[in-house]
Amino acid sequence: MSARINKPHEIVERALELSRADGCVVIADEGSTANLRWAGNALTTNGVTRGRTLTVVATVGGKQGTASGVVSRAAVTADELEPLVRAAEAAARGASPAEDAQPLVSGVPQSPDFTDAPAETSSAVFADFAPALGEAFARARAGGRELYGFANHELVSSYVGTSTGLRLRHDQPNGTLELNAKSPDRTRSAWAGRSTRDFKDVDPAALDAELAVRLGWAERRIELPAGRYETLLPPTAVADLLIYQMWSASARDAAEGRTVFSKPGGGTRLGEKLTELPLTLRSDPNEPGLEASPFLLAHSSGDDQSVFDNGLPLSATEWIREGELNRLITSRHTAGLTGLPVSPAIGNVVLDGGEDKSLEDMVANTERGLLLTCLWYIREVDPATLLLTGLTRDGVYLVENGEVSGEVNNFRFNESPVNLLGRAVEAGRTEKTLPREWSDWFTRAAMPALRVPDFNMSSVSQGV
User: How is residue 402 annotated by DSSP?
Assistant: First the structure.
């Protein structure tokens, strides 16, 4: 692309100038990533990448209503910009009226940094982390264990411009660290993960020490059958379950009787008590350490989001308030259909209201039960109850009389997060966590550990 319109905000402005549609939304996402990978206590690869994606939403009015066309392309050159805009317009003119059509958002003040250059990450983000990781390799080697894993940092600057005058910009950093420790014969494995904005708050030495303890627990092996067990779910496992619950919290689907949030006989379960624990599930664009976009970014439309809502301001929302279902996800369109408040999804989720207890405190107060490390391969079985199935991974431990007595086999589980919240009898201290299963899509979460008296381990798994 020529230097004249190489800056993201200039690309947005030029695309809007080229538009011949009745309405137009342009989103320019400028991203960069830096990563490290390691295996067997040694770095294997590292790299930095950069990219740009441009999305154009064209809206065209007609006698039957307003239609929309959406086209996204990567690495758009100056010569490809006008064809991209025309493609979105052609898609709109060839489409039926959009069910979710609304006037494009207007009246939102311009972001003060809209014309600034995009933020970028680089290998410098690992300046303190990489040496500390090298020291962890040395300790692991001396302790007879092997470390595997990766660290990834992404920084995306999103620029939004509309024909109604919006000029918005948000910079989203996103970092993940996953670390596996294995015994030399690979029969024992333990995992730990962290979510971070800048890698200044992650300590490889502390993670290695945590994993060394877990590998020690695994030296004693105990076989257990399938069944229902008192189970301590760590924050990462709670996050994976509740993120799926959030993804299933469409107000429209609930009002139409298709989900666990549908009320028998019609309507939704809003106002219903889901748990006796005083837990609040909430999202807030300004949550410290978990900051997310303060306005809606929608590259496509669906049951719970609409491209017509791009730029809509987002604010703190309590989805569950002290145990009671308080909000379901709506766009402006589905809010009108259901008569519920406009409550778009937000890019983070927090569960709080538990006691000031660490997971270690909860283990110490356990007479007999299971301690999980994490969940993976989570899939939906029944949307009407939100029954999920999945596997445990990288360590399930038996707790007896307040101490871990050994590692047990892995299991397949069958549980509904909604039902599980209702059966939980204890919640610990809320802390930032990395949801292992969904870390490619959703990382900004803070959760407590939960104690469930009868977690359903439906069958034994042969996984590690």
Answer: T
Binning pLDDT at 50, 70 and 90, where does residue 5 land? low
Q: Tell me the pLDDT tens digit for each residue of 380-429.
A: 999 999 999 999 999 999 999 999 999 999 999 999 999 999 999 999 99
- Residue range(s) in the chain whose domain bears CATH number 3.30.2290.10: 3-214
| Residue 44 phi, psi (nearest 5) | -115, -45
- The residue type at 423: R
Instruction: Give me 26's structure tokens.
Output: 């342009």
What does the pLDDT read at residue 171?
98
The CA-based dihedral angle spanning residues 226, 228, 234, 240, taken in that order and rounded to the nearest 10 degrees: 80
First to last CA, the chain: 49
Contacts of 84 (CB under 8 A, 6+ apart): 15, 54, 56, 71, 73, 76
**Residue 161: burial class (beta carbons within 10 Å; 0-12, 13-18, 19+):** buried
Of 150, 48, 184, 162, the closest CA to residue 105 belongs to 162
pLDDT at site 28: 97
What CATH class has 3-214?
Answer: alpha beta
Q: Which residues, other chains included, contact 4 with Cβ-Cβ below 8 Å and sequence gap of 6+?
A: 10
Amino acid in position 428: G
pLDDT at 3 over 60: no
207-219: per-residue pLDDT in tens?
999 999 999 999 9
Other C-beta atoms closer than 10 Å to the C-beta of 258 total 15
CB 68 within 8 A of CB 59: yes
Percentages helix, strand, coil for the chain (3-state, rounded to 5) are: 20, 40, 40
Q: DSSP alpha helices (H): ranges in 19-122?
A: 78-93
Distance CA 120, CA 92 (A): 34
Of 121, 140, 144, 122, the C-alpha closest to 132 is 140
Pairing mode of beta strands 368-382, 387-400: antiparallel
